[in-house]
């Protein structure tokens, strides 16, 4: 991309330096060929990124002003009903922006969604215009030869170009994410009447599920129906909280996949209750969930752990790669709690996990529960020797 950017700068510098002869003089033919073959990569990247922010919902006059205006500024927060850009009442206007084309000023009150897109679209779309203005200003004080020999200036502009390409995406995501919880809450209100009124698994009735929830089943009773309950709660949460945007998984698989969405029980997860596996498939963000068959021994743990991992899936799939226990994760967690008051989503569980072995330090007396035997000679942090204190046969 560096070579393409240099050719882009050289092309426009020569065009500005000799505007009368640039189109007709043969001495510029090689530069034009280089620009056509390599220099256009910069323009292609700008065009591709700008088009990703364009919205078919924008009114034509708004889009035209956005393209023609070279200056874009953000004013104070507003609250005036429909968005002036797209006209949708669901995207109520929150921000006033100003578009300036020479002496003509246009003002629009727009929603957060359009705000994020218009800022990113305008910044990227007009990068070339501002670059040419900078080149013209530079050529007023130095010759063309001195300008092209100033590698530091070109390198600084190239770094600004790279920063812009990434900064516009981050800015768009930040503004969009600020409004994410409001959008999700509106969707939750629309489906509120459907919560717990249907079973999402054909072999188990909603009456039976309510009975299980009331009894808070554990042990063998839970083990007999855990697959049916897992599928039921996954699709119930997906429909009632996440807007049906998560993968449509209908089968419990025996093992996790690195390429296909999945729900599976993993007996090797002994210290964590669950794990969200996040990956892309065909350029689309997707993933799956593994749950610990060792830790999840009842319906209460199933609900809270599944909700936790689905929050990870939602932030990753709906917000293009966001992960971890960040702002979006807790926003989805709050939606779960508001929908199902008895389910809380936290960063870690406090479950007491049954273990096969318990070791005790012969010096300080601390106990260490373990699923597997530790190596002979293992010591405590106080350097005391660990000895097996209890062994559970079941």
Provide the number of structural domains: 4
Percentage of residues assigned to helices: 40-55%
Count helical runs: 12
Shape: elongated
| Approximate strand percentage | 5-15%
Topology pattern, helix = H, strand = E = HHHEEEHHHHHHHEEEEHHEEE
The major beta sheet can be summarized as: 4 strands, mixed
Q: How far apart, in Å, are the first and last alpha carbons?
A: 62 Å
Question: Which residue ranges are poorly predicted, with pLDDT under 50 across at least 5 consecutive positions?
Answer: 180-197
Concise summary:
With 394 residues, the chain is an alpha+beta fold. It has helices spanning 2-17, 29-53, 60-68, 112-125, 127-139, 144-149, 151-178, 180-190, 206-215, 219-240, 299-318, 327-339; strands spanning 71-77, 95-101, 104-110, 252-253, 263-266, 274-281, 284-292, 357-361, 367-370, 386-391.
